[in-house]
Write a structure and sequence with these properties.
Radius of gyration: 28 Å
Number of domains: 2
Bound molecules: zinc ion
Structural class: alpha+beta
Largest sheet: 3 strands, antiparallel
Length: about 150
C-alpha cells in the first residue's frame, strides 16, 4: 500500500506509480521535465564521466548540425547572401561602436535608416559647431567609409 507524496515542484499530492515506488515527483510533464533538468544539473557537477559524455554528445550534435547547416546553405544561396549581409551589419555596428567609444561618432537617431554623425570635432557639438562634422546616412548594410583621421 503506497502513501501519497507531495511533489517538490508543483506541491500537489500524488500517488507514486506502482512501477516506481520510489517516485518523488508527480507525473505531470512539466514536473518531470524539471526533475530531469535538475538531475542533469546535479549529475554534471557530481559525475565527471557523465559530464564528459554530455560534452561529447553536444559536440557530436554541433558537428551534425554544422553538416546540416552546410547542406542548407548549398541548397539555398539566398540564405548565404542574407547571412553575409547580416554579418556585414554586425561588423559595421561593431566598428561604429568602437568609434562611439572613441567619441568620434554620435548615434543621432537610431532607426531603420541610421543617421550617424562622424567627425573628429564631434565633441564640439555642445558648442553647436557642426561645420567640421560630417553627416552620414548609412543604408541598413554596406561598407563604411574609412575612419576619420584625427586632425
Ligand atoms: Zn508535480
Amino acid at each position: 500500500m503506497s502513501k501519497t507524496r507531495r511533489c517538490p515542484y508543483c506541491q500537489r499530492s500524488f500517488l507514486p506509480s506502482v512501477y516506481r515506488p520510489q517516485q518523488e515527483v508527480c507525473g505531470q510533464p512539466e514536473c518531470q521535465r524539471r526533475r530531469r533538468a535538475d538531475y542533469h544539473r546535479k549529475k554534471l557537477v557530481s559525475d565527471p564521466v557523465y559530464h564528459q559524455v554530455v560534452l561529447e554528445s553536444q559536440k557530436k550534435w554541433r558537428d551534425a548540425h554544422c553538416e546540416y547547416q552546410k547542406q542548407r546553405r548549398r541548397a539555398n544561396p539566398q540564405l548565404v547572401e542574407n547571412n553575409r549581409q547580416h554579418q556585414r551589419q554586425r561588423d559595421q555596428k561593431r566598428r561604429l561602436g568602437r568609434l562611439v567609444k572613441n567619441n568620434l561618432v554620435l548615434d543621432l537617431k537610431h532607426s531603420a535608416s541610421e543617421v550617424w554623425l562622424v567627425g573628429s570635432k564631434v565633441h564640439d557639438l555642445d558648442k553647436n559647431n557642426l561645420a567640421s562634422a560630417q553627416v552620414l546616412i548609412l543604408p541598413s548594410f554596406g561598407s563604411l567609409p574609412t575612419e576619420p583621421q584625427p586632425s
